[in-house]
Design brief:
single chain, 146 residues, alpha+beta, Ubiquitin-like (UB roll), two-stranded antiparallel ribbon, 8 strands, 15% helix, globular
Length: 146
């Protein structure tokens, strides 16, 4: 059974109507780890993805590159259990509180790191400013994605 088959037939629920969807019918989503409060990743959801996330209690995103629903962990096994869903004051950004499953510590990034936000802007002693990794690869991506 696919995630789509689990979806409610009525996708016009009032709480979904309160979201300010962009002109493509999407809303940006931030996944934040429950407990550590680490920001794990940024993604997009359409109405169906947000409704499924609420219904299933696990993160389902919308892949813009593949133009389809993307249940987090469908290939990697790195599933996100959702504890809460929040919306910002403008109703145009969603914040998920999640537990990242599938590896200890949890891997959220396709690079094999805990968080997608692993590059930090820093200056060298010589004044050279550049993005530098601040977190290790926990698992080689070639071992995750076959």
């Amino acid at each position: 059974m696919t995630f789509t088959q689990h979806a409610s037939a009525d996708m016009t629920q009032n709480w979904l109507d309160q979201v300010r969807w962009d002109d493509k019918g999407l809303v940006p989503v931030i996944a934040q780890e429950r407990g550590s409060n680490d920001v794990l990743m940024f993604a997009w959801m359409n109405r169906e993805a947000l409704a499924l996330t609420q219904q299933l209690g696990r993160a389902v995103y919308f892949s813009r590159s593949r133009n389809k629903l993307w249940p987090k962990g469908e290939e990697s096994g790195h599933v996100q259990t959702v504890h809460s869903i929040r919306i910002d004051c403008d109703a145009d950004v969603v914040l998920l509180s999640v537990t990242q499953l599938g590896h200890e510590p949890g891997i959220a990034c396709h690079t094999g790191r805990h968080s997608c936000f692993y590059q930090e802007l820093s200056a060298s002693d010589g004044g050279d400013v550049q993005w530098r990794p601040n977190a290790p690869v926990l698992k080689d991506p070639s071992d995750i994605y076959k």
